[in-house]
Amino acid sequence: MVFPTAVKLVEVSPRDGLQNEKNFVDTTIKIELINRLSQAGFQNIEAASFVSPKWVPQMADGTQVMAGIERRAGVVYSALTPNMQGFEAALAAGANEIVIFGAASEAFSQRNINCSIAESITRFQPVAQAAHQAGIRIRGSISCALGCPYQGETDIASVLDVVRRMQDLGVQEFDIADTIGVATPLKTARLMQAVANLVPTDRIAGHFHDTYGQALANILASLQVGIHIFHSSVAGLGGCPYAKGATGNVATEDVVYMLHGMGIHTGIDLDSLVQTGAWISEQIGKPTNSRAGRALFLKHNES
Ligand code: HMG
Ligand code: MG
Description:
Strand order of the largest sheet: 1-2-3-4-5-6-7-8
Number of domains: 1
Distance between the termini: 37 Å
Order of helices and strands: EHHEHEHEHHEHEHEHEHHH
CATH topology: TIM Barrel
Bound molecules: 3-hydroxy-3-methylglutaryl-coenzyme A, magnesium ion
Radius of gyration: 18 Å
Helix content: 40-55%
Low-confidence stretches: none
Structural class: alpha/beta
CATH class: Alpha Beta
Number of strands: 8
Mean pLDDT: 97
Strand content: 5-15%
């Protein structure tokens, strides 16, 4: 089996990780999280979300967060932008990359962004155009690519349809999201292979939530079909407020532990990451969801 020698990790904890927290996480904590992550070696950090504060109050301080971080050279700080209002705010805040986010399920699209899939593409058009003009990279996220909390199964054709529409918009990286963490490895491999028939693998990312404990297995299955970009969240934080029952993203510590164990380069300092996972868990008053994070933290503190 040939595996990639290096993987690009997109750390999504400052956005996906925190957006679902009930209690408001102080802006200074968000800023410190991002700074710690860039110090640990992340080159890609999803730092903010310029959505309606009525819909997701936790992300209301995106402008202050982006203004407060210490920007490290070469690091891409990305932000979610559902419409032009979000794009203008992201541009003013100095985002290096924007994320338009749609879905492969009509029911989820309605609940998450209050419009149909077709309407969302129409909304994304001016955003994509403005991003191209401003020279900002565009990611396109496709939720419920492997199952929907409202519609159940998602067929591959629905995902490919959104991929094609986003290709037409000039999207540069396609985030294939298992929003509710229901996928299993062979299903994941089949979908990733189908996407890879349309888009080069260096433009496809796997975004796996770990609700059913399948995320690492799904990453391994994706690696086997040549995918080498993955999203993860330190301490396994996360969840979407509009995806009933969905828990956090796959924990970054677990992903890095697995990849390093396989001899795959990530550029991440695992010790520093583990400390950050312990720190943010303490800040939000919850135990970590990372198995490797917990084990390594205990081992470190015993010795
Ligand atoms: P809407 O209500 O249909 O929009 O919401 P609207 O254009 O009618 O605007 C209504 C109000 O929102 C107006 O304010 C606008 O100004 C304001 P009002 O006049 O009532 O005071 N507004 C905004 N404010 C700030 N920034 C903006 C913005 N846009 C409108 N950008 C909208 C449509 C898309 C805005 C709304 O549905 C929304 O914000 N949804 C966000 C949902 C969200 O953030 N979900 C979580 C992120 S996606 C995710 O987690 C999945 C992912 O991780 C992948 C996976 O795991 O599947 C990416
Ligand atoms: Mg997500």
